[in-house]
Structures are given as structure tokens and as C-alpha cells.
Amino acid sequence: ARHKLSPLAARNALEDRFGAAVALAAVSQADAFAPGSALPGGIARAGARSSIMPMMAAEAKIRLGTRGSPLALAQAYETRRRLAEAFPEELGKDGEHVQINIINTSGDMKLDKALSEIGGKGLFTKELDVALLTNEVDFCVHSMKDVPTWLPEGTHLETMLPREDTRDAFISPKFSSIEALPKGSVIGSASLRRQAQILAVNPGVSCVNFRGNVQTRLRKLDDEVVDATMLALAGLKRMSMEDCITKILSWDEMLPAVAQGAIGIQVRSDDEKTIKYISALNDDNTKKAVSCERSFLATLDGSCKTPIAAQAVLKDGIVHLKGLVCNPDGTKMFRAERTGPVADLMAMGKDAGEEIRAEAGEQFFVDLQAYVQNIQAANTKPVK
Known about the structure:
The protein is of the alpha/beta class. The chain is built from 14 helices and 14 strands.
């Protein structure tokens, strides 16, 4: 059963683990980190027309760019901790020479529409790209599932941290599973991938657009705006919020998004100083698995506009890949699996994507894009 966390309990748990900045972001209003507001814990802000407020220029040896959500800040603090462990003499034993800069993104500011309506996941990264390319920050920390398959020229993904549990979590104060939801129930989700797989299991429910950070979504659930929601288990674990979970879903029940649970670090390709620090943090198995999944995604031209899922696992030098593409109402579903040596991981992802594209036919993808472009809210169950 799901256990409700009070705002105070949630803030205390986050502050114990990550510090006051993350806790404040979790329980404050959406404009808590608006331009001009005070930021705790040596954090600066960058914006499209504003400069970074330095922590203390003499102390900042390397500058980290991040979104301002509680989860993004938790990931930034995790990165800073790992840098401090790897380079305590240069960056400080507590990472005090790593400056964290909050950058407002379009995806964080346009919460009234589904991502599929306003440009996809790149809305969470484009302002970070600009800050990196204009040398406002030295590297950016991303949730890898938000990162488009195309990156701006002159930048690349240097490192991925050890991956967290990739599964999805079902959360409901009333019902134990997707199957248990009665006809007419409403599930809040901004993900076309989740919507399609939910409707394939229980076509009697409705899926509605449901965005905002983890805490905002859980508050809407407590206010009975919806009957249930879905969140990535990785984010809940990083926020120490596992008590909110009703059920953890297996891959057979809900195949996760490409790169779900992975934290990636983007750098300027010619910045040798930053690359020296960042490359030391890389988890090779995570990077290889995510690269295989992103190869599958790129072959299908995937983004938030298409319901695509893929997961790869490395074991004893062998890659196992599962991929899925479906239409938004879950009535058509195409799957592909591959197993092969690590050396072939990129080719495996591409081959699996090509198999699905051939099986589904090009008209399927044309119809899929037309559907997304024409609906008022991309996460409302279609009516035909």
C-alpha cells in the first residue's frame, strides 16, 4: 500500500540526504527558483538572458549545469559527491570547488501541455546546451531519458554514472495495480510510452496529461485529481521516496523508456580539463547498455512524440536488448529482441529498430505522427 509523506517529512528526508537546496525545491512553489530568488547551498542560476551568480569565483574550479527540479538537484549533488571522492585534493573533500548552476528550461516552464505537443524531450536540455556552448558551465548533468539522440556539434556525452533500477512504479491510494483500476478510472501520465502500455492492459481507463516534478505529481494524487500515476523507480529511490510506491512493475508489465535510470554528463568535446575530471566517473556497463538503447531509438526517430521503449542489459560480455513500439491507444504493439556480443551493441540496436520499422510499415509511423500533431492533449485516450 502507498504511504503518504507529509511535506515536512519529505523535506527532512531530502535535507538529510542532499542538503537544504534539494529539500527547498521539493516543497516550495514552482517559482521558488525564479530569477531573483535566493538560492541556498552555494548554488547559482543561469538563464537565457541572465548571467551565472558565482558561488565565489576563487573557489569554483569546475561549473556544473543542471535543471532546478528536486530530482535534477539530487542528481547534481550525486555527481558532485562522486567528483569529490575521485579528486578530493583538487575539488575539495565535500566538492566545495564544484559550482552548481541552475538553468531554467522550457520543459520546466511549460507544464500545462504534454511534451509531445511542445517539442519533446529536447525542451529539458536545449537551454543547458546553450549554457555549455557559451562557456557558462563546464558540464551538464542530465537524466539520460530526457536527452535527444542528436547533440549539438562540439559536445558529447562523456560519462554515465552507475545506473539505478530502471523499472516503473505504479502509485495509487486506492488500487493495487493497473489491472485493478475500474472502468472510468483516470491515470495521470505525461508519457505516451506509459499511456500505450497502460491502455493495452486496461483499455477501460483514461490517461491524462500529468506533468510537474515528483512532489507536484504526488500532491495531485493526494488531492484526488487522478486515481493513479506512474513514476520512474530510479527517481523515487534517488529522492528516498520509495514509501510512496504501490507496486513496482516488471519489464513484462511495463517496458521502461530508453536510458531510464541513467545519469549522463555532457561536455564540450575540446575541454580537456573537464573531460579529465568527468571521464573518471564513467560506468562502462551503463554507457554501453544506454548506447545500445539509443541506437534503437535513433533508428526509429524516437522522442517524446512516439511511444517507444527499450532496455539493454550486459552480462558476461553479452548484450540482451528488448525493444517496443506501439500506438498511443495500445491496440498495436511491435516488439524486437536481440542478444549478441558487446562489440555489436550499436548494430544490434539499429537492427532491432529496422525490424520493427519493417514489420509496422512506414504508414504506421506516419499515422502515429499525425495523431500526435492533431490531438489537443497528447496524453488523453483517443476517441475514434
